[in-house]
Design brief:
This protein has 289 residues and is of the alpha/beta class. The chain has helices spanning 5-17, 20-27, 31-45, 61-85, 99-107, 171-174, 189-198, 209-217, 227-230, 262-277, 279-282, and strands at residues 50-53, 56-59, 91-97, 119-125, 139-142, 151-159, 161-166, 178-181, 202-206, 223-226, 236-238, 248-255. 40% of the residues lie in helices and 22% in strands.
Length: 289
């Protein structure tokens, strides 16, 4: 039985991210295409690899075994690629975060990584929790203390949220309407709060956080953003004080066996320092424009 490496890579993404929707971002394939590829692989193996649930995909015992073997193949392929290219560093440090935090890390990459570090950094951007225990990421930036015994975490600060509008009182903003979130983003706490408190006044929705910001900036309505996002965007204006019940902790999470690995520790230390330096921005304490 010849199993295609491309199929194994898709399987790894779905297994690590816990479902088709989350894996669309890393594979750049539609959920429907991913579903067909996974089903075809199951037929080739002759066993079910996942239990399909509304909350995502859970590995079966056969899927668990294939995951271990596929990770061995992945390591071998990565080693082969490094041998072929000759000059690539050996260690990849994967950092998982939500869309806004991932964008903040990207904008400040120079504070986290340099060419001289001898490592590579990969950002895993998703609204779902990436399984660090299965090494789907080395570092996670999360909103709560890790409860799993195999994870270690340190608090880097807090994150405040508030309601923002665009700078011009036009269209939906002038009418006091809101911009909501649909799709996966609708499950985050700020989207649920907006639905609970202003759901009857949501006139426009976007299916990801960045499209919601563009809609608010264009005057489609008001919405809730983390203060580090809204206060740093010159197109947006905070219209009220931060919402107390939406303030969250921020934790830098690693696997307890990896936390002392020099590459992982170096990146984790720098991310922690970056977040702490910018705490006034994250907590909504920056001067309002």
């Amino acid at each position: 039985m010849d199993i295609d490496w491309d199929d194994l890579r898709l399987f790894l993404d779905v297994a690590r991210l816990g479902g088709l929707s989350a894996a669309t971002a890393t594979t750049r394939l539609s959920a429907a295409t991913l579903g067909r590829r996974v089903t075809a692989l199951e037929k080739q193996i002759g066993e079910a690899l996942f239990v399909r649930q509304q909350t995502g995909y859970r590995l079966t015992p056969v899927g668990e075994e294939l995951l271990r073997r596929a990770e061995d193949v992945e390591a071998a392929m990565q080693s082969l690629a490094r041998w072929r290219d000759g000059n690539l560093p050996d260690r990849i440090v994967r950092v998982s975060a939500g869309p806004w935090t991932s964008a903040f890390v990207s904008a400040n990459i120079g504070e986290i990584w340099t060419v001289d570090d001898g490592i590579r950094v990969e950002l895993v951007t998703t609204t779902d929790r990436v399984d660090i225990g299965r090494r789907a990421a080395d570092i996670g930036i999360r909103s709560e203390r890790p409860s799993e015994q195999w994870l270690a975490g340190r608090q880097s600060g807090k994150v405040a949220h508030a309601i923002y509008s665009g700078r011009h009182l036009i269209n939906g903003i002038a009418a006091g309407l809101f911009v909501g979130v649909t799709g996966e983003g609708a499950n985050i706490a700020s989207a649920r709060w907006l639905q609970a408190h202003h759901g009857d006044r949501i006139a426009v929705r976007g299916n990801n956080t960045h499209s919601v910001r563009e809609l608010v900036a264009a005057g489609a309505g008001l919405s809730v953003f983390p203060c580090f996002v809204g206060d740093s965007d010159p197109r947006l204006v905070r219209v009220a004080q931060p919402i107390p019940e939406l303030e969250t902790d921020q934790w830098i999470v690693t696997h307890h066996e990896e936390r002392h690995s020099p590459p992982v520790r170096k990146v984790a230390d720098r991310i922690t320092a970056l977040m702490r330096v910018h705490q006034p921005l994250f907590r909504g304490k920056m001067p309002i424009r």
